[in-house]
Specification:
The protein is mainly beta and 420 residues long. The protein has one helix and 25 strands. It folds into three domains: 103 residues, Immunoglobulin-like (Sandwich); 114 residues, Immunoglobulin-like, CATH 2.60.40; 169 residues, Porin, CATH 2.40.160. It is 4% helix and 56% strand. The strands form five sheets. The chain has an eight-stranded antiparallel beta barrel. β3 and β4 form a beta hairpin. The chain is elongated, with a radius of gyration of 33 Å.
Length: 420
Amino acid sequence: MEDKRTLFVLILFLLPLFLRGQDLLPPETEDSFYIERTEEGDRFIQRLAWEKADTVHRYEITIEKQNSAGEYTGVLRESRTENFIELSLSPGLYRYRIEGYNLLNSLAGISDWIPFRVFPALQPELYSFTQTFLPTEEGDPRGGIEITLYGMNFVEGAEVYLLPLPSGGDPVIPLAYLPSEESARMLFDREVLRPGRYRVYVRNPGGLEGFLEITVEPPSAASPVEPSAASPVEPPVSVPAEDSAPGSSFDLYVSAGYAPLIPLDGYLFTPFDSIFYPMGASLRIELVPVRQPWGDLGLELAPSWNMLKSDDLKIHIGALHLNGTYHRRFSGQTALVFRLGAGVNLASGTSGGQSTASLFTWIAAINGGIAFRWFTRPVQNPGGAAGTFYIETGVEYTRLFATDSPAGYIRPFLGVGRRF
């Protein structure tokens, strides 16, 4: 019995000598991440995991970060019994090493330094695209297709593929993906990327992704697939996104909503003592012919009506304004809309049920405002998707140039509209 106890103790002391210097980690480790939703916002959690060793009781993990000079400095050293660790690291280049300790708290093994990179989490935003047929090369009569995406947050190392619509199918992977600041070029073989509808997916290394539905057009008769010495290189062909109205080169928005009136100053409002008049409505018809990655430009016709009422006086104020608009998109579902324009206001009033001619007049006016627009479903092409409903809320200031005394008022509004 004494001999068996001595042999057992000897094995415990020899085991660390056998394991020391051995590789603790297998050739492949698990590096991943997930997004944690908190009240302060999204938090990206990195997860490092390695294969569990039966002879190891606890692990010591050391993480170092590379600085601008290429040197590593320690950012974390932690002991744990699990074979994984979850962290929230800032973007940059890192490396980590695992040390294993046995039941006697002796070093049982140590891994090599394992490098890894934490990418910044950028949301790719895809607004529009163009299609270009590339010239054929000698020995390859098929030629190629170049799809250029326009938007924001295109980065190197993104995962990019196209899925056929509407029934799906095998993904189409581009031969090359060349991102720049506000655009990204994708190169395809014509025999692989056939004409039809597709949904483009771009997944950045940080894990966030964006998409855009497109239509790939067949080559025209002026750009044959076979090489021709007399045929010049075909210029880029602009192709509208799939959910734009067929054959149209503009976006059309129509909305109606509630728009109360708040007087600010002027003789027109002196008979009234309230600071808020709830009776009001507005209609907006907007044409947007210019759609670019930096924003959309359009023209808007905006009729409206408001009523002011006191004890014995009631005034109706009608307006017809023509506005220039600028849309600044921030995601597939949201945008800011800025308005600036001019028009005329018609004021008519009654006192004690009788028409008051002195309050019937046309007044020139200028106006400006800002609004927030939210679409009911994500869209990536400029301005929205055909048939998509949206909710819009904002505020507008109007200045009336009356002959006797200028006046001014503001109108908050809440409307529902649709893009055609």
